[in-house]
Amino acid sequence: MPPSPLMNVMTKAARKAGRSLIRDFNEVEQLQVSVKGPADFVSKADKQAEKIIFEELKHARPGYSFLMEEAGIVEGKDKTHRWIIDPLDGTTNFLHGIPIFAISIALERDGELVAGLVFNPAMDELFVAEKGKGAFMNDRRLRVAGRQVLDDAVVVTGIPHRGKGGQGEFLSQLGKMMIDVAGVRRTGSAACDLAWTAAGRFDGYWETRLQPWDLAGGIVLMREAGGFVCDINGKQDMLGTGSVVCGNENIQEHMLDVLNRD
Ligand code: IPD
Ligand code: CA
Ligand code: CA
Fold first, then answer.
1. Helix residue ranges per DSSP H, 32-121
2. Which CATH fold would you assign to the domain 5-141?
């Protein structure tokens, strides 16, 4: 299927921002040795990538509204369309020279997520999906993994960093999950976690205390790859609660049972 005009717009913005991130990623290695470290530099890289995406999308679709991690809300004339953007998901990885990070872009229409993109420029993996049109990675159709029981499942999650809160809650979830699954992984990028679960690399993914921009693009990928996505309460308020539990239908259900077990 040829890419739609909408997906062309999203892809062009992500690739342009991706080139900027990669230039900065290559610099980061040099900065590791300095006493100050690369933190300030990375925050500039982040903002620069967001600016590129914002300008590209604004030019291509004037009037659409925005929710961005760095610049926050930018209201457009068109209240029915909203872009949700994380210009650099996996900041800690980026800062440490670990090539697992991504740009995440989603489009919401009338409050419904209709298109999603996750682009990891270091691995040159572009994941795209539009509602009703399937999910793809570099033009290859994606499908979630078919494993049906947790015994065989490798699941991924996120670990709250220092100062974030929720460490006890996370340890309790992990304690319940680790005894039921084949393995638990942590990539450091929620957007990659969703994209890689959509691609069948992970059987399931759960995390809490996320932000809408961590999740929005990847949710569309998961759904269009045949996956099931819900929040920690089994409802559809992922962006509101900042929580996600996903996989194929059975894995998602089993994970939800485990996480909500006393
Ligand atoms: C973070 C990543 C990470 C998740 C954190 C997020 P950032 O986003 O998605 O995987 O565990 O909760 O804040 O800060 O790198 O954009
Ligand atoms: Ca970010
Ligand atoms: Ca993020």
1. 39-60, 91-95
2. Fructose-1,6-Bisphosphatase; Chain A, domain 1 (3.30.540)
